[in-house]
Write a structure and sequence with these properties.
The protein is an alpha+beta fold. The protein folds into 2 domains: about 120 residues, MutM-like, N-terminal (N-terminal domain of MutM-like DNA repair proteins); about 110 residues, Orthogonal Bundle (Helicase, Ruva Protein, domain 3). Strands 2-9-5-4-3 form a 5-stranded mixed beta sheet, with helices on one face. It has a 4-stranded antiparallel beta sheet with strand order 1-7-8-6. The model has no long low-confidence stretch (mean pLDDT about 90). The structure holds zinc ion.
């Protein structure tokens, strides 16, 4: 499953090359998944340079100097990569943006969730999830105080439910939600209403720490023996106390935690 740090890594892999370069041709491979009118693409994308690439939660927004943007919804398993035009595209490729120099940006998604939309300016009307997207967890606006305040508005939610609620905080997925709960030392099914402001601020601290580390040092973070992420399985052992990791289902997602290290408040 794609999570926010994975999306950051994807952007890092093409942003340096693509920014400032002009798209020569747009090729739509899957018309069902791609909400891009050919005439509009010819007018506002082809022949225009990429101005900037932004991430909003798990969306990637490629902005063009024409003032129009392509919005990629990564869903559960979407992927954007820079590839030579001579390499045949994968079967699940949805759209290709070609550069004159022989390379192209490819968006693929094996599942049904990956989508692409062409929008004018910042008009995300109709892109429901993007329109209603909550605060970005890596934004400076998410201070401990802001987090505690946002959380306090959802007293009946569980801690994991809060972390996964994209309209409150955008971009945290299942595995990192469990990791944040583990490192902060709280049970994922902990009710928000029972937590103090100090405890909620502690969650924010670990939320930022986990996501920053996973974004900046993805390999190191995933290889860290102290992270729960490597022990998410039946019979897995807690990296702190070596006790058994417990598996359960919360908000419809497979959830792992250590009942010894993660206590109810
Ligand atoms: Zn433990």
């Amino acid at each position: 499953m794609i999570e926010l740090p994975d999306v950051e890594r994807m952007i890092d892999n093409f942003v340096g090359y693509a920014t400032g370069k002009t798209i020569s041709e747009v090729l739509v491979d899957d018309e069902e998944a791609v909400d891009v009118d050919e005439d509009l693409a010819a007018e506002h994308i082809e022949g225009h340079a990429i101005e900037d690439v932004q991430r909003h939660g798990k969306y990637i927004v490629v902005e063009f100097r024409s003032g129009w943007s392509l919005v990629f919804h990564m869903g559960e398993d979407g992927h954007i990569e820079l590839e030579s035009q001579t390499v045949p595209p994968l079967e699940d490729t949805k759209i290709r943006l070609q550069f004159a120099a022989g390379r192209e940006l490819r968006f693929s998604s094996p599942g049904k969730q990956g989508e692409v939309h062409l929008v004018e300016g910042e008009d995300f009307t109709g892109l429901e999830t993007l329109e209603d997207l909550g605060i970005d967890p890596l934004s400076e606006d998410l201070t401990p105080e802001t987090f505690a305040e946002l959380a306090a508005g959802h007293p009946r939610s569980t801690l994991k439910g809060l972390l996964l609620n994209q309209s409150i905080i955008a971009g945290i997925g299942n595995e990192y939600a469990d990791e944040i709960c583990f490192q902060a030392g709280y049970r994922p099914d902990q009710k928000i209403g029972e937590m103090s402001e100090r405890q909620l601020k502690r969650v924010q601290k670990y939320l930022t720490r986990v996501l920053r580390r996973a974004t900046l040092h993805w390999e190191a973070a995933h290889a860290d023996p102290g992270w729960l992420i490597n022990h998410r399985e039946e019979g897995g052992r807690c990296p702190r106390c070596s006790g058994p990791v417990e598996g359960t289902t919360l908000v419809g997602k497979k959830t792992y935690f250590c009942p010894r290290c993660q206590r109810a408040v």
